[in-house]
Amino acid sequence: MVEIKTNESLAAMRESGRVVARALAAVREKAAPGVPLTELDRAARAVLAEAGAGSPFLDYHPEWAPVPFPAVVCVSVNDAIVHGIPDGTRLAPGDLVSVDCGATLGGWAGDAAVSFTVGPARPEDTRLIAAAEEALEAGIAAAVVGNRIGDIAHAIGRVCRAAGYGIPDGFGGHGIGRAMHEDPGVPNEGRPGRGMRLRHGMVLAIEPMLIGGGTDEHYTARDGWTIRTSDGSRASHAEHTVAITDDGPRVLTAL
């Protein structure tokens, strides 16, 4: 079931989105060579605490996961695509880091992700990150009243494939509102003109995930959470929470 949000609810979701944006900014500022991934989680926790916000990630336990998620951010480094658990691993110069963060405030959730490099970036990483951001922008541009979910999926997939990157099957965006994961699902590849029609008041988390080596293959690491590329190539992830409105798409998780 898809809940259509009122304009007042969209305004409330914008507040939770701002918390997510500030948390991601704090994590990015904290990231440097030698910093353990747990410190990135602490930086995000501090932002959430200051805002009086909760975390939809912390203790999240879907049926496929062996244990509840132990942090407020997913930190996925290099060949990790998504769902990386922040542990004592220390960042190294040149690492490609994808950070996914959520927040709940006033009963509403926000969810966003960003990828960046630690220190000087390799040209191939710069291109990979830029492609994820371009795919996200394309997906957002397609998120207009009257379009369908397939139009968003097609816009994302076209950018990813044209750049020569892989798309991990089975992972994509989702509806969001009172809970972090709601209907409908938003694939990162699909056929235009298919799927649910978009209406004013729908809110979607749109999140392209790209595999640098060009293959779609991936596997779940021993921790039961982290999704890694099968070929060992690097991955990037970009995400925003986006409201569908009569005035066009409205990004709720921008600073």
Automatic annotation (TrEMBL):
Molecular-function GO term, any one: initiator methionyl aminopeptidase activity
EC number: 3.4.11.18
Residue ranges constituting the Peptidase M24 domain according to the UniProt record: 12-246
Binding site for substrate: 83, 181
UniProt xrefs under SUPFAM superfamilies: Creatinase/aminopeptidase
Record: residues binding a divalent metal cation 1: 100, 111, 239
UniProt-annotated binding residues for a divalent metal cation 2: 111, 174, 207, 239
Highest taxon above the source species: Bacteria
Keywords: Aminopeptidase, Hydrolase, Metal-binding, Protease
Family to which the UniProt record says this protein belongs: Belongs to the peptidase M24A family. Methionine aminopeptidase type 1 subfamily.
UniProt subunit comment: Monomer.
Record's function text: Removes the N-terminal methionine from nascent proteins. The N-terminal methionine is often cleaved when the second residue in the primary sequence is small and uncharged (Met-Ala-, Cys, Gly, Pro, Ser, Thr, or Val). Requires deformylation of the N(alpha)-formylated initiator methionine before it can be hydrolyzed.
Protein name per Swiss-Prot or TrEMBL: Methionine aminopeptidase
Naturally occurring in which organism (per UniProt): Streptomyces tanashiensis
